[in-house]
Amino acid sequence: MDRYLLRELLLPFGYCLGGFLIFWVSSDLFKEMGSFQEHKLTALDIIEYYAAISPDFLKVVIPVAFLLALLYALTQHARANEITAMRAAGLSLWRIAASYFVVGAIASCVLLAINEFWAPDSEARAEFILKRHSGGSKKFDQSRVHGLGLFNAGENRHWVNGLYDFKNGEMLSPLVVWTKASGTKVIIAASRATRTNNVWVFFDVQQFELWPVAGSGFVPTLQTNRLAFPEFSETAEQIRSEIRITRNLTLQNRHRADVPITYILDYLRLHPTVSPRDANWLYTMLHSRLAEPWKCLVVVLIALPFGAVSGRRNMFVGVASSILIVFAYFVLLQFSLAAGSAGHLPPLLAGWLPNIVFSLIGIWLTARAR
Q: To the nearest whole percent, how much of the chain has pLDDT over 70?
């Protein structure tokens, strides 16, 4: 039975997903064809462009396609009285839906991977492909960052440098400023610095100190070719998180921010105390990112009572139901994120509210299903 139900689900799921992708690519291709010609893209470049930008589309369309496929499959089973026969044989709706929950869990893991590893940089990668033949873009390299500014609030340490290379773990022209427990302010200026075996090593170093004495001024205290600082705890991942978060904390970016969970956690480790406004946004975004992939399991809970109702219904009822459910979920999601970011809802509740509400509705309706 499980194999049969899976086959009847996965076929329309594949059709829905493929249909959405074809419709999206074809409509976007007609709209962007002039831009592709202007930037001298070949057919292979266009394919690469859509492969690069597709994660942003897939993270939205996978739950929708899954919902539509589930409603279609369940409606077909209900029209043929197959669900009635299964329940007459002693199977509950929960047991019938076991294979659907397995697919939903797998889809949720796929969504989590897309959100964390592929979607965040998809726009920048697609922009590079678009402009690489027209000379309007430098080489796409997310591992090299210019003009980095990093503040480790936990250890009261500021980092400023000209360029940071994540692949080699090397900074060029770094400047580090921090205050000792005695109140002495220290400045380290170097030609470059690398992190090797979890230890920062600076080269061509000049050290200056400002003692807590009125009018003392900065005094050069050390000049050496090489100096190691094992007490510096900043990692490459924390530096990357600082870049991504600070760019999205601006008002115009925070509502469309696409920040991986690991970046948010690293930023919070670097900044144990942030302003209430930023804390609301950060924690709301964190819980929203944690909750987002599991909407595929919520889809099963909400589709089961809608699709498994007995009777000969038109298959387009499933399509209409899916549109209404997606719209309601999207409205509630935007409301909860806005309320959480503004401090009107606790971030934990704001991030998980749509999943909680639709899960409870689905469980309640399934329990009442006859």
A: 84
> Three-state SS for 132?
coil
**pLDDT, tens digit, 9 for 90 and up, residues 131-161:** 776 655 455 455 566 666 677 877 788 888 7
Could you tell me how far CA 236 lies from the centroid of its own chain? Answer: 19
CA dist list (Å): 91 to 6, 87, 269, 348: 16, 5, 49, 36
- Cut 0.85: pTM above it: no
Q: List CB contacts of 188: < 8 A, sequence separation 6 or more.
A: 174, 175, 176, 177, 202, 205, 206, 207, 227, 229
Tell me whether residue 314 is exposed, middle or buried, using C-beta atoms within 10 angstroms of its C-beta: 0 to 12, 13 to 18, 19 or more: exposed
Supply the pLDDT for residue 148.
Answer: 63
In angstroms, rounded to a whole number, what is the distance separating the alpha carbons of residues 142 and 163? 12
pLDDT in tens, 252-268: 445 555 778 888 888 88
State the DSSP string of 142-189.
Answer: TTEEES-EEEETTTTEEEE-SEEETTTTEEES-EEEEE-TTS-EEEEE
Distance CA 160, CA 79 (A): 66
Taking phi over 0 as left and psi of -120 to 50 as alpha, with beta for the rest, 156 belongs to left
What digits encode the pLDDT tens for the residues 71-81?
888 888 888 88
Report the sign of the C-alpha dihedral through residues 126, 130, 133, 134, in that order: negative
